[in-house]
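STRUCTURE:
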């Protein structure tokens, strides 16, 4: 048995995350991926990009300091390989490429700005085998701060992916127009609605938190009815009460409402009654992509 450590850095619109996995390799057995640690730093880059068009000097410094800290942590944890991806906020910021250069020079961390298509493809790499049934259609939805990625799956096979510029931070800042919602509705009704008994798989910090709040056990899906009633409940509370009474982090207490709305509308338009929450996302997909790319390269050269 060999235990290796792989890491993923996800520079999102609402937060920056470092996920470290133990990758357990065994002879004649399937490789196992087990979460070792997850660190989340609430740097809301999307608030800068979607309102100012660029990342502010303050958040640039915070991001660089975060990357330096992540670099040290990966070193002391014995991380063998990592991959750092920046999504919506960084790809739309005028100074995004300049910041990436500074991060490389000052922290030594190489960051790749990925487009929506690649983001959706990486997310589809997450390990959902235990959940997926061959004769079942699924709509995988990853809600971020700047964009939402939709992937249509037939069993475990991704059939179609699409990224839309509708995310929680954009919604909070009033930057999503009716036309954006209409675009999502048309895509879902064209590709998803005709399918029978579609189920949603939700990923992202907000749906994970909602599942935890529901008190359901891991593996038990959320119902559309519960999610709708929770949405109304959250809306009825003030921002302060959501922090004090529900114990939500300040940077979660506001975005959780627009995130719930995205899932509810997607469920309504697709006819889905269940939302599975396997608690995987872009970071998990990055680690799988990193590992399986290495395996493919090794096989090709052996």
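SEQUENCE:
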């Amino acid at each position: 048995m060999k235990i290796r450590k792989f890491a993923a850095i996800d520079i999102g619109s609402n937060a920056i995350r470092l996920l470290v996995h133990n990758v357990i390799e065994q002879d004649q057995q399937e490789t196992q991926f087990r979460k070792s640690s997850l660190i989340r730093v609430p740097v809301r880059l999307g608030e800068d990009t979607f309102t100012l068009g660029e990342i502010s000097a303050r958040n640039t410094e915070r991001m660089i300091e975060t990357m330096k800290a992540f670099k040290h942590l990966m070193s002391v944890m014995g991380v063998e390989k990592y991959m750092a991806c920046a999504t919506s906020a960084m790809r739309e910021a005028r100074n995004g490429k300049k910041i990436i250069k500074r991060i490389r020079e000052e922290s030594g961390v190489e960051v790749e700005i990925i487009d929506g298509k690649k983001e959706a493809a990486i997310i589809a790499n997450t390990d959902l085998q235990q959940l997926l049934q061959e004769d079942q259609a699924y709509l995988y939805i990853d809600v971020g701060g700047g964009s939402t990625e939709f992937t249509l799956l037939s069993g475990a096979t991704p059939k179609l992916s699409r990224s839309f510029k509708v995310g929680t931070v954009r919604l909070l800042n009033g930057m999503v127009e009716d036309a954006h919602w209409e675009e999502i509705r048309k895509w879902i009704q064209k590709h998803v609605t005709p399918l029978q008994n579609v189920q949603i798989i939700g990923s992202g910090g907000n749906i994970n938190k909602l599942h935890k709040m529901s008190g359901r056990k891991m593996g038990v899906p959320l119902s559309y009815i519960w999610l709708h009633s929770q949405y109304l409940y959250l809306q009825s509370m003030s921002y302060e009460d959501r922090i004090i009474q529900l114990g939500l982090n300040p940077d979660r207490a506001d975005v959780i409402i627009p995130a719930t709305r995205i899932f509810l509308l997607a469920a309504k338009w697709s006819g889905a009654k269940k939302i599975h929450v396997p608690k995987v996302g872009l970071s998990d997909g990055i680690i799988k992509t990193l590992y399986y790319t290495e395996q493919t390269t090794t096989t090709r050269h052996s």
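REMARK: The chain has 13 helices and eleven strands.
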